[in-house]
Every structure is written in structure tokens, then in C-alpha cells.
Design goal:
Radius of gyration: 24 Å
Bound molecules: ligand BES, manganese (II) ion, zinc ion
Helix content: 25-40%
Strand content: 15-25%
CATH class of the largest domain: Alpha Beta
Number of domains: 2
Distance between the termini: 48 Å
Low-confidence stretches: none
CATH architecture of the largest domain: 3-Layer(aba) Sandwich
Largest sheet: 9 strands, mixed
């Protein structure tokens, strides 16, 4: 599928289907929608008058043009109330409209840029969000289907009437496509069955991506991981026949900078729980337990594409968590790369373990900030559901940047406290820290362990176990892997500027 922008009059555009929009409570459409209404002899106004279309958010109605336009059909999509309009709603509306157009069998689609006119959004932001919503909403994973759905849109063209805005719109559309394609790359990885994406395959995907986007990529295998003293990753992988990998992606801008951001993502390619084996239902989607790692890879892909002015490092500890006969055991003590020891209370709390080594490894970059992202705890699903990632931090300024990026991208985060009191729960009688903290505040005690490995550098932990997979069918997030986090993390990088105020 090709998504692009052009300057012209949508009334004259030759397509199978033309998408226009309407705010709620508008009875006489204006702008492009008004022009289409006039060309159709007032059919849109008639539909509104008959109560068949109210402009509610994501509402759709299609009409036939009977030769009045080159396009056969017009698809009308509701924008909701004008005073509630946001860039996030543009993503939704674009996703909904594109999916409806595909269901109708349209191959060549033309659309106006939602929100660019009376919506009052900046044309570049509206165009970017419209392209994102389109490419994200149309995502499907059909790799294993012998007969994939043949209904496929071939082109989506955003038609901007105003010549003065056309170039800005085209730039926004092309950015939006890049952002959404990175997110779809994350979804592909997170959806791939566990046996088809062991650690070595995840590493191969990282090096292929790095090659394509001009990043440096280093893959450490078990011996090199051992040489770095990352014994905790080795411990987690011991129960598996699949060797672990440690993925390092590096981007250095052309102009000198003293700012380095490290992004670290959990790369458990399948989580059985290990000897603390998960029950069947809980294990069912553990092929996506590398979604944090894939999200970091997606963010680095965007870094490679957009080439920001700060240095960015991506780290992905990749391992299976299996209950093989050589598996690590409850009661074992493992020593992380920074020398700290961890008592294994439960082999199913493995994400924090592989990240402990990755965060220790991160210190060599003397990072200005570290952000880790992981499907770490079931508890975060209970706390926040599918609508926000849990954020835990040791630095309010960094948390504010990540929160702002969440609002900008629609990938929202919500802070949970990480007070010192919680650290009591992960104290161990025989090691420096214990890998579980009981049922209470399960997401926070996960973060309390990670905090011991960041050396007091500005750090944010994102627990994405609730948002990485959705069973809700949302306009641009169909059921399945959401690909959460690539756009969010890249937005933090993009908006970084001269760095954090030290506090
Ligand atoms: N990968 C799971 C967390 C998870 C649960 C992700 C549900 C997505 C959906 C993680 O490794 C895990 O098993 N966490 C345990 C921690 C516990 C043993 C302290 C959990 O949440 O139960
Ligand atoms: Mn687990
Ligand atoms: Zn896990």
C-alpha cells in the first residue's frame, strides 16, 4: 500500500472512494465536505436532516455518487464535538475510515486531511496523525494464512486544496507513514509465534533493521554475554535449548553532542514461567513477552530514519524462559554484571532479571537518561488496564518528558509511586535483592528491583504488560499486538533538546 499526499481538488480526484468528514452538531457542512455535498445535490445534508448521520466520533456513512464525482463512493466520517477535537482523534478517525474503505472493497482511496481545516490543528500534525491512523488501522498479520484477505487498499492519497499548505501536508504524511511503519514492525515481531522467533531470530531482525536504517548493531552470544559478566541473562536462559543474545543498537548523530539516551527493552521471546511454570491460560500470549524489546527496536528504527541530534543506544537482552532440566531454580542466587546479587524467589519474575544486566551494561555509556520498557507484570493490567502503561521513575523531570511524549503520541503513561518504603519488599536475607515482592504493589516492586541497577542516573521504567496486546477492537488499534512504545520513545528523543535540568 502506498500512502501519499497531493495538491488538488478532491471533487476531481479519480479514486474508488473519497473520504470527507463532519463535526458533530453541524447541520450544514462546509469546506470540502460542503463542496461534496453540493456536487451530490445535498445528499449529505439530507442524511444529516434524516438523522442518519450525526458526526459522532468514528461514526461512518457511505453514499454513492452516481457519476457526480469521478469517485464511486463518498465515505463520511464523524469527528465528534469540535471542542473535544485532538490529534489523537485524527488518528482514530483516519483508522476507522481506512478500515471501512477496505471493507467496502476500495482499492484507490482519496481523503481530506482531518482537522486541517476548521479543526484548527497545525497542518503538519494533522497530516502526520491521519497517515499514522491509516497505516496503523489497516495493519493485519496474515503471514501464516494460505488465503490472505484479498481486499487490500492499494493507494491512499491525502488531497490538500490549499497550495500554500500542500508541501507541509506532504511532509506530515511521509513522517506519519514512517512512524506507523515502525509500529507495525513492532507488531510483526510481537505477533510472530515464539518458536519462529527465538533470541537468535530477534537478533537477526535487529541487525537487518540496523543495516536498512544505518545503525550500528552488535550482537553478543552466550560467550560474550558471559565475558561481560551478565550472569543473570545466562541464568534465565539456562532452561532453554535456544541460546540467548544481547542486542546493542547504536546511533551517533553527525554533530557532536553530550546527550546520550539509552533505551532498554525486555526481550523474552517466550515466557513459560520457567520452573515456576505458568498455567496454560496465562502462558497463551507469552510469544509477545519481547514486546518491550521490539518497541525499543522500533524506536531505534525511527531514530535511524529521522536522525535526531542526540546519541541513542538500544539494548535488548533476548532469552527464552523455559523449564528445561538445566533451568535456574527458585532459591538460586545470581550475580548481575554490576556485581549485585539477586535471590531468585520465583523464576517467572524473569523480565526484571534480564533487565538488571542490561541496565548495568547501560552505565558504560554514561547516559543522560535511561528508559526501559517491558511486559513486566500482570499487576499493571489490574492497575491500569489497556489504556496506559505504568511509569515508575527516580527522576521527575524525565518522567515529565515521557508523560508529555505519551500525550503527543496517544501512547499514554501513568505514574505509580516508587517510594523507598516499597524497597523493603524486595529485601533478601541472603542476597542484595530478591526478585519478587509479594502480591501487594506487584508492578512497583518490579521497578524497585530495577532501580538498584541504574546507578542513580535519571531513569524511567515503563511497564507495558497492559498495553502491548489489546483484545479491544479500536479504530487504529485492531485486536492483537499494539506495537506500543516505538512512537512514544522516539518522541522523547525527538523532543529532547538540550537535555534534563539536573535536580
Ligand atoms: N511476562 C510476565 C508478565 C505479563 C503478564 C505480561 C501478563 C503480559 C501479560 C512476567 O514475566 C511475569 O510472569 N510476571 C509475574 C511476576 C511475579 C512472579 C512476581 C506476574 O506478573 O505474575
Ligand atoms: Mn514471567
Ligand atoms: Zn515475562
Amino acid at each position: 500500500m502506498q500512502v501519499s499526499a497531493t495538491q488538488g481538488n478532491i471533487l476531481e480526484y479519480d479514486a474508488d472512494l473519497v473520504i470527507v468528514n463532519l463535526f458533530e452538531e453541524v447541520t450544514t457542512p462546509g469546506g470540502a465536505t460542503g463542496a461534496v455535498d453540493a456536487a451530490l445535490d445535498g445528499h449529505i445534508s439530507a442524511a444529516i436532516g434524516a438523522g442518519d448521520f450525526a458526526g459522532k466520533l468514528n461514526e461512518t456513512l457511505y453514499l454513492y455518487t452516481n457519476g457526480a464525482l469521478p469517485a464511486r463512493r463518498v465515505l463520511l466520517v464523524g469527528l465528534g464535538k469540535q471542542e473535544e477535537f485532538t490529534v489523537e482523534r485524527v488518528r482514530q478517525v483516519a483508522g476507522k475510515a481506512a478500515r471501512t474503505a477496505r471493507d467496502l472493497g476500495a482499492k484507490r482511496v482519496a481523503s481530506i486531511v482531518h482537522g486541517g481545516g476548521i479543526g484548527g490543528l497545525a497542518p503538519s500534525a494533522a497530516a502526520c496523525a491521519a497517515a499514522e491512523g491509516t497505516v496503523l488501522g489497516l495493519y493485519r498479520y496474515q503471514r501464516y494464512l494460505s488465503s490472505p484477505d484479498e481486499k487490500e487498499i492499494e493507494t491512499v492519497t491525502f488531497v490538500e486544496a490549499d497550495a500554500a499548505k500542500a508541501e507541509t501536508v506532504a511532509g506530515g504524511v511521509s513522517d506519519g507513514v514512517a512512524l506507523a511503519e515502525a509500529q507495525n514492525f513492532v507488531r510483526d515481531l510481537a505477533t510472530t509465534p515464539g518458536s519462529d522467533l527465538p533470541p537468535a531470530a530477534l537478533a537477526d531482525a535487529a541487525s537487518a533493521m540496523a543495516q536498512e536504517f544505518g545503525l550500528k548493531c552488535t550482537i553478543l552470544g552466550p560467550d560474550e554475554i558471559a565475558a561481560e559478566n551478565m550472569n543473570v541473562i545466562l541464568g534465565v536462559s539456562r532452561g532453554s535449548d535456544q541460546p540467548c543474545r544481547f542486542i546493542v543498537l547504536e546511533y551517533t548523530p553527525e554533530e557532536a553532542t553530550d546527550q546520550t539516551i539509552v533505551l532498554a527493552g525486555k526481550g523474552i521471546t517466550f515466557d513459560t514461567g520457567g520452573l515456576n511454570l505458568k498455567p496454560g491460560d496465562s502462558m497463551r500470549h507469552m510469544e509477545s513477552d519481547m514486546a518491550g524489546g521490539a518497541g525499543v527496536m522500533g524506536a531505534l528504527r525511527l531514530v535511524g530514519h529521522f536522525k535526531p541530534g542526540v546519541r541513542v543506544i538500544g539494548l535488548v537482552p533476548a532469552s527464552e524462559n523455559m523449564p528445561g532440566s538445566n533451568a535456574f531454580k527458585p532459591g538460586d542466587v545470581l550475580r548481575a554484571a554490576n556485581g549485585k546479587t539477586i535471590e531468585i524467589d520465583n523464576t517467572d519474575a524473569e523480565g526484571r532479571l534480564v533487565l538488571a544486566d542490561a541496565l548495568s551494561y547501560a552505565q558504560r555509556y554514561e547516559p543522560s537518561a535511561i528508559i526501559d520498557m517491558a511486559t513486566l507484570t500482570g499487576a499493571v493490567i489490574i492497575a491500569l488496564g489497556q489504556h496506559a502503561a505504568g511509569l515508575m521513575t527516580n527522576h521527575a523531570g524525565l518522567a515529565a518528558k515521557v508523560t508529555a511524549a505519551g500525550e503527543a503520541t496517544g501512547e499514554r503513561v501513568w505514574e505509580l509511586p516508587l517510594w523507598p518504603e516499597y524497597e523493603e519488599q524486595v529485601k533478601s536475607p541472603i542476597a542484595d535483592v530478591k526478585n519478587t515482592g509479594g502480591r501487594a504493589a506487584g508492578s512497583i516492586t518490579g521497578a524497585a528491583l530495577l532501580k538498584k541497577f541504574v546507578d542513580d542516573r535519571p531513569w524511567v521504567h515503563l511497564d507495558i504488560a497492559g498495553v502491548d496486546y489489546t483484545d479491544l477492537d479500536r479504530p487504529y488499534l485492531p485486536k492483537g499486538s499494539s506495537g506500543f512504545g516505538a512512537r512514544l520513545l522516539y518522541e522523547v528523543v525527538r523532543a529532547w533538546g538540550s537535555g534534563l535540568d539536573t535536580d
